[in-house]
């Protein structure tokens, strides 16, 4: 990582409520650089807004016989080393799936060069129309695994709603809709809409009065729109449940069952998640027709994420965090607490230490959550303090350190938290602050996940989590 200092951003309307706190100016360079925005995030710039319009296609007219790939606006090649979580493929290419050229253009312009293992397994089966139950690790390309076949099967001659993607959180809905818009931008008019709770219902009603092909939604909002007769789902051919274990938990399963009652009898259902409890099995038996099962979870944790614990008292935690900030080479970090109140208190402490940080939790106003998510994703701040709201599917490539300020009680929660680092086969660090009361929990989660959480060393090898110490010319990380 470059150690040149980046200016702290000017953030309007700073307050204790909007999730954006700014410490006194502190060098953002080596080693921790807990100050302003991280450098080298240009590839991540772009609006996170489900209703934004796709970028206009390139002006170059592609004629028969042209090498159409020459006209693509490809992002810089990612030279960071990748683990076998995403490289252990059969060697397929995206062109092997007979996809529309316009869809391939969007795929390559996203920087997706070759299918990951979950994409190799999913795409041909999903294109055939068969139900899928897919289990794969966090950060291995699940969104692409269902969005590519979904977009391929959209019939632009029809002006009706044809596909639903259901996700558990508003932030994930915005993220998935942005990916969908980008991938489909050359397809000549695929209309994508994100709809979530906490936003203006009237806007959604007006939008659905026009042509919409794909809706990406949280469960409560889409069910409300269906029951009001606004979202007409009688011609929906595909429904995706992303983070299916959460969607089929007690929080949402009744809504999911009710929603399926409105859909056509012959529809395709795709379930994707990293963990599948018994609730998923029950739902699958009731609603899926001979599903194709994919399981790429021989082990649960990502190969590229190194896990450590630091044994501390509750009073030592903030001091320990300050030490980590000063010693680690952080590009971006996510720090987890177990309650909304502790999130705000810790964010205030971090800002008092002189580091800029954002915070986010479910009790904040929606516009503040959107702003924090958008700005953190675009690199305006290095550190984000949050609750488990932020553990589901959120893909921010620049995050190389995750810190559990409060250790979680469930192995499933731990797995999703540390999966925010080491995205798409890259390397990352997970550091857990463990108190006396957490010691049995730590042992239990290690056994449950079949993983090792090591005592933190005095000096952490930068080659374990800093991208600049790796390139594809070196040996592949952690086979």
Automatic annotation (TrEMBL):
GO terms for cellular component: P-body. Residues 64-74 have a biased composition (Basic and acidic residues). Its EC number is 3.6.4.13. Residues 304-464 form the Helicase C-terminal domain. A motif (Q motif) lies at residues 92-120. It comes from the Eukaryota. InterPro entries: DEAD/DEAH_box_helicase_dom (IPR011545), Helicase_ATP-bd (IPR014001), Helicase_C-like (IPR001650), P-loop_NTPase (IPR027417), RNA-helicase_DEAD-box_CS (IPR000629), RNA_helicase_DEAD_Q_motif (IPR014014). GO terms for molecular function: ATP binding; hydrolase activity; RNA binding; RNA helicase activity. It is found in: Cytoplasm, P-body. PANTHER family: DEAD-BOX ATP-DEPENDENT RNA HELICASE 50. This is RNA helicase. It comes from Austrofundulus limnaeus (Annual killifish). The gene is ddx6.
């Amino acid at each position: 990582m470059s150690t040149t200092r980046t200016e702290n951003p000017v953030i309007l309307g700073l307050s204790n409520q909007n999730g954006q706190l700014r410490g006194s100016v502190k060098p953002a360079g080596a080693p921790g650089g807990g100050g302003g925005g991280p450098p080298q995030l240009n590839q991540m710039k772009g609006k996170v807004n489900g209703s934004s319009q796709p970028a206009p296609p390139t002006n170059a007219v592609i004629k028969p016989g042209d090498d159409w790939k020459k006209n693509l606006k490809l992002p810089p090649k990612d030279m960071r080393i990748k683990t076998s979580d995403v490289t252990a493929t059969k060697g397929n290419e995206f062109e092997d799936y007979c996809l529309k050229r316009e869809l391939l253009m969007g795929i390559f312009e996203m920087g997706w060069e070759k299918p990951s293992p979950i994409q190799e397994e999913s795409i041909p089966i999903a294109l055939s129309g068969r139900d899928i139950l897919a289990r794969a690790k966090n950060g291995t390309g699940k969104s692409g695994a269902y969005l590519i076949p979904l977009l391929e099967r959209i019939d632009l001659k029809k002006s009706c709603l044809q596909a639903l993607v259901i996700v558990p959180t508003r932030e994930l809905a915005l993220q998935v809709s942005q990916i969908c818009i980008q991938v489909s931008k050359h397809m000549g008019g695929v209309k994508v809409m994100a709809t979530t709770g906490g936003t203006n219902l009237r806007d959604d009603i007006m939008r659905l009065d026009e042509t919409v092909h794909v809706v990406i939604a949280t469960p409560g909002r889409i069910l409300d729109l269906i029951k009001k007769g606004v979202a007409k789902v009688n011609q929906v051919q595909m429904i995706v449940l992303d983070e299916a274990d959460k969607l089929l938990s007690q929080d949402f399963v009744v809504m999911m069952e009710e929603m399926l009652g409105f859909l056509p009898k012959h529809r395709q259902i795709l379930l994707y998640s990293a963990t599948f409890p018994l609730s998923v099995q029950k739902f699958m038996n009731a609603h899926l027709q001979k599903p194709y099962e994919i399981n790429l979870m021989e082990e649960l944790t990502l190969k590229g994420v190194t896990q450590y614990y630091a044994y501390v008292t509750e009073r030592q935690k903030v001091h320990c965090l300050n030490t980590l900030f000063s010693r680690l080479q952080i590009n971006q970090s996510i720090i987890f607490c177990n309650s909304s109140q502790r999130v705000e208190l810790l964010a205030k402490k971090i800002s008092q230490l002189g580091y800029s940080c954002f915070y986010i939790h479910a009790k904040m106003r929606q516009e503040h959550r959107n702003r924090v998510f958008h700005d953190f994703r675009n690199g305006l701040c290095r550190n984000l303090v949050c609750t488990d709201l932020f553990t589901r599917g959120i893909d921010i490539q620049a995050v190389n350190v995750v810190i559990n300020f409060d250790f979680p009680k469930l192995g499933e929660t731990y797995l999703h938290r540390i999966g925010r680092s080491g995205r798409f086969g890259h390397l990352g660090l997970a550091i857990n602050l463990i108190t006396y009361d957490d010691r049995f929990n730590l042992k239990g989660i290690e056994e449950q996940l079949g993983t090792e959480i090591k005592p933190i060393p005095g000096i952490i090898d930068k080659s374990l989590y800093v991208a600049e110490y790796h390139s594809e010319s070196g040996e592949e990380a952690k086979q």
